[in-house]
Amino acid sequence: MAKKSQLARLAKKERLVRKYAAKRAALKAGGDWEALQKLPRNSSPVRLKSRCAISGRSRGYMRAFGLSRIEFRRLAREGKIPGVKKASW
Question: How far is CA 65 from CA 39, 41, 68, 73, in A?
């Protein structure tokens, strides 16, 4: 499990990205780069980090499922992910 502080930091960044998304898009369309630089750094969507929805792990993240490799394997083994089954030959 990721630290609570890391998850809280990520949640704060996500809120900022949503808050400034419209303003950021308008400034980009207008080409006003000086005003764009005055927005908070964490309001940029590039600064978001992909994390597992269950454990908060950032490494080994599978974008298609929103899970880390460890949680994906556990849920797939339990049969809780539709369309995914263990390969055997």
Answer: 32, 28, 8, 11
